[in-house]
Design a protein that fits this description.
Number of helices of chain A: 11
Radius of gyration of chain B: 23 Å
CATH topology of chain A: Rossmann fold
Distance between the termini of chain A: 21 Å
Number of strands of chain B: 19
Strand order of the largest sheet of chain B: 11-12-14-13-15-16-17-18
Strand order of the largest sheet of chain A: 3-2-4-6-1-11-12
Oligomer: heterodimer
Strand content of chain A: 15-25%
Number of domains of chain B: 2
C-alpha cells in the first residue's frame, strides 16, 4: 500500500499534475520526478508538455521503450508474452460471454419498479452472480500471470535485469512517481515486467486516467455506447492494488450514461464496497495512507443510483 | 386540428394568417409517420420529385382553395431520410427547385436537394466537426499508373499525431473526393480515431476519370489498385503490409469496383465496405438498366457462380428506398457462404451520400475495431 497517492482525471485540457505533486513533495525538495508514460506507447517520449507543466526536473523512465529493447534481445520472451497476450484475450472473450448472460437479467431487475423483498432478493442474487463471475475472472487471469512468471521467470532474464538495474538507479532518487494514462493493458503489463512498484516502494505517486486505474485493486473497463458489441462494464484483471477500495473511472461522463439511475445503481453495487470515482477533467482524489479525501466537484456513483460529490 | 386543416383555415383567413402559420410551424411538418409539405407560388401544377423506390417518381400537390398554397401529405416511416425537389409547372414549362420552406439540404456532385427527416432521425453528431477531436491531414498526390498509362490524382489522409515510425492500416476509398465532400469522411475519420472507435489509419481517396466505365467491374481498376496504387503507397507511407490491415470501400458503382477488385485479387484486401452496391444480376434474360450496366451484370453473374473468398470480412449497407435493395439483400447470403464475416445493415434512406455517411461509423468500426475499451488517456 502506498503512503500517499493522488489520482487525477485526464490532463489534456485541465492540467493539475503540478499542484498534486506540490501537495506531496515539498517546494524545497529538489529531487527529480520519475514518470511512466508507457501507456502512450510509441509516443512515450513526447512528454515535453508534462515537463513544462511540472516545472521540476523530470526523468522519463521510458518503460515502453525498454520493453521494446528487451523484445529485440530476447525473442523467446517476446514469443511467450505474445502467447500470454493471446490467452488473455481469449479468456476475456469467454468471461464476456458469461458476463453478458448475467448482466441482461440484472439490468432488467434493476429497471423494474418496486421495493418489495422478493425483487430485492432477486437483485441481490443477480449481483452476487455477477460479482462471482468477476472474481473468478480475476483469479483466472492471475493464474495465467502466475504460470507465466513461474515458467519464464522474466525477472531473472538478462535483458530484463539490465533494464531493471538502470530503472532502480533512476527510481532511487525520485521524489515522486508520475503515472500517465493511455493504453491500460500496455501500461500495466510493462510496469509489471519490471516489478516497478516493488523497486519504488510505498513513496508518493501521482497517477491519472489509465495510470490511476493501474494502481487500484481492479481494472474496470467501461463504455455505455460503443459502436460495436455490448456495453457491459468488464473487469480486465487485478491492478497493482496500491490504494484500497477504489474503482477509477476516467472520462466517466463521456463514456457512461450517468443519468441512468438504475444503471448507476447496478454499477455502484456491483463494485461495492469500493468507491466508484468519476475521474473527469479537474477531478482529484487523495490517499494519505489511511483514508481518501477528494477535491470539490470530484464525483462518485452511489449505491442509490446518484452521482454526487465525494465527501471531502 | 391537424396541420392540413390549419393550412386550409389560414388560407381562408388570408395572407397574414398564412404568415403566422409559417412562423409557428416548421415545414415540411413531421408528425408521427406523416409528413406534410407546403408550397406557395404561382403554378399550374406542383409535384414532389424524389428517388424513393416503390413510390411514383412524381407526386402531385393539391392546390388549397384556388390559392397559391399547395399541400401534399405522405407516409414517412420513423428514422427515414428523404431527399427531394419540388417541380413547378407553368404554361407548359417545368422547373425543379429546392423547397423554399425547408432549411435542410443534402449536397451531392450534381448540386443539392431538400431533405426531410422522419421522426427519430437527426444527423449523427459523430460526423460533424468536433473541436475536441485532433485533426488529421489531407495531402494531394498523384499515382503513376502503368495500368491506365496516365497519372491519377489521389488524396492521402494521415491521422492526427501521425508518426513515420509507426505502421498504419490502409483504407482505399473509391470516389474518395466525393466521400470527403459529401459524406464528411475526414470529420468521420478524425472523430472515430479521436474517440478510439477505430485505430489511427491512413486513407487513400481515389477518383476515377471515367467512373461509369472504370468502376463497372473493369479489371483495369482492380489491377490499378493492387499493382499501382497500394505498392506505390507502401513505398512512401508506413503501412502494415498485410491483407488484414487493408480495406477497400465504395458506394454504388464504387462498391461494385471494390468487390470486383477483391474477387479478381482474392486475399489482397482483407476487408470490404460496400455501400448501396449496384450489384445488378440476371436470373433469366436481359437486364433493363442500360448499356453501362452490361459489364456490371456480367461480373455479378460470374461472381454469383463462383464467388471464391474475396476477403475476410465485409460490411454491406443499403437503403430500403433504393431499387438496389433487392440485389444487396440477395448478395448477403452468398457472401456468408464464402466463409467471410458479414455484417449487413439496412436504413430507411435512399441512394445518396448522407445515407452512406450515416453508415460509416458502424461499417468502419466493424472492420477496424478501435482500442476503445483499453485506452484512457
Amino acid at each position: 500500500m502506498l503512503s500517499s497517492a493522488i489520482l487525477l482525471g485526464p490532463q489534456r485540457h485541465v492540467r493539475i499534475v503540478a499542484p498534486a505533486v506540490q501537495a506531496l513533495v515539498g517546494d524545497d525538495d529538489d529531487r527529480p520526478l520519475a514518470a511512466v508514460t508507457a501507456g502512450w506507447e510509441e509516443r512515450e517520449s513526447e512528454d515535453h508538455e508534462l515537463r513544462e507543466h511540472c516545472g521540476r526536473k523530470l526523468v522519463n523512465l521510458e518503460v515502453w521503450a525498454r520493453v521494446e529493447r528487451i523484445f529485440e534481445r530476447d525473442r523467446e520472451l517476446l514469443a511467450a508474452i505474445r502467447e500470454r497476450h493471446d490467452t488473455l484475450r481469449r479468456v476475456q472473450e469467454l468471461y464476456r460471454l458469461r458476463l453478458q448472460g448475467a448482466m441482461e437479467p440484472a439490468r432488467e431487475l434493476f429497471r423494474r419498479a418496486g421495493d418489495d423483498v422478493w425483487l430485492a432478493a432477486e437483485r441481490h442474487d443477480a449481483l452476487t452472480m455477477i460479482q462471482g463471475i468477476d472474481t473468478q475472472h480475476v483469479a483466472r487471469v492471475q493464474q495465467i500471470h502466475d504460470e507465466f512468471e513461474q515458467r519464464w521467470r522474466p525477472a531473472e532474464r538478462t535483458a530484463v535485469q539490465r533494464e531493471r538495474r538502470d530503472l532502480q538507479s533512476k527510481l532511487r532518487d525520485a521524489a515522486c512517481l508520475l503515472v500517465a494514462g493511455g493504453h491500460i493493458a500496455v501500461l500495466l503489463h510493462r510496469m509489471r515486467l519490471f516489478d516497478l512498484f516493488g523497486m519504488y516502494g510505498d513513496r508518493p505517486v501521482v497517477a491519472w486516467s489509465a495510470g490511476a486505474m493501474a494502481i487500484c485493486d481492479r481494472i474496470v473497463l467501461f463504455h455505455d455506447s460503443p459502436p460495436q458489441g455490448g456495453a457491459a462494464t468488464e473487469v480486465m484483471e487485478a491492478g497493482f492494488g496500491l490504494v484500497p477500495d477504489l474503482v477509477a473511472l476516467p472520462h466517466a461522463m463521456k463514456r457512461l450514461d450517468a443519468t441512468d439511475e438504475r444503471a448507476v445503481q447496478l454499477f455502484a453495487r456491483r463494485f461495492a464496497p469500493s468507491l466508484c470515482v468519476l475521474l473527469d477533467d479537474g477531478s482529484r482524489i487523495d490517499w494519505n495512507g489511511k483514508r481518501w479525501s477528494a477535491q470539490p466537484e470530484t464525483l462518485r456513483f452511489t449505491e442509490d443510483g446518484w452521482v454526487e460529490e465525494v465527501p471531502a | 386540428m391537424n396541420v392540413i386543416e390549419r393550412i386550409e383555415r389560414a388560407v381562408g383567413e388570408g395572407p397574414h394568417a398564412i404568415e403566422t402559420l409559417l412562423q409557428t410551424t416548421e415545414f415540411p411538418h413531421v408528425s408521427g409517420r406523416s409528413v406534410t409539405f407546403l408550397f406557395r407560388g404561382q403554378a399550374q401544377e406542383v409535384t414532389l420529385q424524389h428517388w424513393i423506390h416503390g413510390l411514383p417518381g412524381s407526386l402531385p400537390f393539391r392546390r388549397v382553395r384556388h390559392s397559391d398554397a399547395w399541400v401534399l401529405q405522405l407516409d414517412l416511416p420513423p428514422k427515414s431520410r428523404m431527399e427531394y425537389k419540388i417541380g413547378v409547372a407553368m404554361y407548359g414549362r417545368g422547373t425543379l427547385v429546392r423547397d423554399p420552406l425547408n432549411k435542410y439540404t443534402a449536397r451531392d456532385p450534381f448540386g443539392a436537394n431538400s431533405v426531410v427527416y422522419g421522426e427519430g432521425y437527426s444527423p449523427p453528431e459523430w460526423c460533424l466537426d468536433d473541436p475536441e477531436a485532433r485533426k488529421g491531414t489531407i495531402e494531394d498526390r498523384h499515382v503513376d499508373s502503368k495500368v491506365y498509362g496516365d497519372w491519377r490524382p489521389i488524396k492521402v489522409y494521415r491521422p492526427a499525431r501521425f508518426r513515420q515510425t509507426r505502421r498504419y492500416p490502409l483504407l482505399v476509398v473509391h470516389d474518395g473526393f466525393d466521400y470527403l465532400g459529401f459524406a464528411n469522411l475526414q470529420e468521420v475519420l478524425d472523430n472515430m480515431i479521436h474517440r478510439l472507435e477505430i485505430p489511427p489509419l491512413i486513407a487513400i481517396m481515389t477518383q476515377a476519370s471515367d467512373r461509369m466505365r472504370e468502376y463497372a467491374a473493369d479489371p483495369r481498376q482492380a489491377d490499378y489498385l493492387v499493382k499501382d496504387l497500394v505498392p506505390q503507397m507502401e513505398q512512401i507511407l508506413p503501412l502494415v503490409r498485410e491483407p488484414s490491415a487493408r480495406a477497400v470501400m465504395g458506394a454504388s458503382f464504387g462498391a461494385v469496383s471494390s468487390l470486383s477488385t477483391a474477387w479478381r485479387h482474392p486475399g489482397f484486401f482483407g476487408k470490404l465496405l460496400l455501400q448501396s452496391g449496384s450489384f445488378v444480376f440476371t436470373e433469366i434474360g436481359d437486364h433493363d438498366r442500360g448499356p453501362l450496366f452490361d459489364p456490371v451484370v456480367k461480373f455479378v453473374n460470374e461472381f454469383r457462380k463462383a464467388p471464391g473468398r474475396p476477403a475476410d470480412s465485409v460490411f454491406v449497407s443499403c437503403g430500403v428506398y433504393e431499387s438496389l435493395i433487392y440485389y444487396n439483400r440477395s448478395l448477403v447470403p452468398l457472401l456468408q457462404e464464402t466463409g467471410m464475416q458479414v455484417r449487413f445493415r439496412e436504413a430507411n434512406d435512399g441512394h445518396n451520400w448522407e445515407n452512406w455517411r450515416d453508415r460509416l461509423r458502424e461499417g468502419l468500426s466493424y472492420l477496424f475495431p478501435g482500442p476503445l475499451w483499453l485506452v484512457y488517456e
